[in-house]
Amino acid sequence: KAGVTQTPRYLIKTRGQQVTLSCSPISGHRSVSWYQQTPGQGLQFLFEYFSETQRNKGNFPGRFSGRQFSNSRSEMNVSTLELGDSALYLCASSLGSGDQETQYFGPGTRLLVL
Amino acid sequence: QKEVEQDPGPLSVPEGAIVSLNCTYSNSAFQYFMWYRQYSRKGPELLMYTYSSGNKEDGRFTAQVDKSSKYISLFIRDSQPSDSATYLCAMISSEASGGSYIPTFGRGTSLIVHP
């Protein structure tokens, strides 16, 4: 079956702009989690959505937001971009909320903020 | 001090060697432990998931958890060049309840297995 897909794969933005990233989970998976990966901070949890509701949130400012649709697809939005937001943004889907054992990651969206 | 410490490496070994990858942690509430493998330009892939002290084996991989020492390890037997990747440890607190959890990751160890 198809894996987790993320679009776009690469993105270049300038400071102050906003960006929306998209994630399509594996068929049947109802939970989508988002992560930020940088060389300096490593992999950090942003938030998780399950059944269109945010279930968990990491320690990121309110500029980072997300949503999930009824078909489990999810979007992540970052407003007022800063240079430090340059990172690989990964989404992962799983069958249920917090279900690490069924979690699969997508290939990521590489965001560069200039 | 970070909650999870992991040596970034790189760790370079010859093909066929036994590889030992390690993480230490400071939060005694961590009860669920994972190891991920991440190839360049790919997302992480779950290798091992465990929630108890002791060993868990899956093929060439063995995960070891020592909660008393706050130390976890991943052993790779008969290492292959295809094992060359970054290995991330991750942990979840037992205080996570009601479906609430936030995984904390180590920085990852870069492993190079040369033929």
What's the helix and strand layout?
The complex is a heterodimer of chains A (114) and B (115).
Chain A (H helix, E strand, L loop, with lengths): L4 E3 L2 E4 L5 E6 L6 E8 L3 E9 L2 E5 L6 E5 L5 E5 L8 E8 L9 E2 L3 E5 L1
Parallel strand pairs in A: 2-11
Antiparallel strand pairs in A: 1-3, 3-8, 4-5, 4-9, 5-6, 7-8, 9-10, 9-11
Chain B lengths: L3 E2 L5 E4 L4 E7 L4 E9 L6 E6 L3 E5 L2 E6 L4 E6 L8 E9 L10 E2 L3 E6 L1
Parallel strand pairs in B: 2-11
Antiparallel strand pairs in B: 1-3, 3-8, 4-5, 4-9, 6-7, 7-8, 9-10, 9-11
Description:
The complex is a heterodimer of chains A (114) and B (115). By secondary structure, chain A is an all-beta fold. Chain A has strands at 5-7, 10-13, 19-24, 31-38, 42-50, 53-57, 64-68, 74-78, 87-94, 104-105, 109-113. Chain A is built from no helices and eleven strands. In chain A, the strands form two sheets. In chain A, strands 2, 4, 5, 6, 9, 10 and 11 form a seven-stranded mixed β-sheet that branches. A four-stranded antiparallel β-sheet of chain A has the order 1-3-8-7, with no helix packed on it. In chain A, a hairpin with a 2-residue loop joins strand 5 and strand 6 (53-57). The radius of gyration of chain A is 13 Å and the shape is globular. The model of chain A has no long low-confidence stretch (mean pLDDT 95). Chain B has 115 residues and is an all-beta fold. Helices cover 0% and strands 54% of the residues of chain B. In chain B, a hairpin with a 4-residue loop joins strand 7 (61-66) and strand 8. Chain B is globular, with a radius of gyration of 14 Å. At the A-B interface, strand 5, strand 6 and strand 10 of A face strand 5, strand 9 and strand 10 of B.
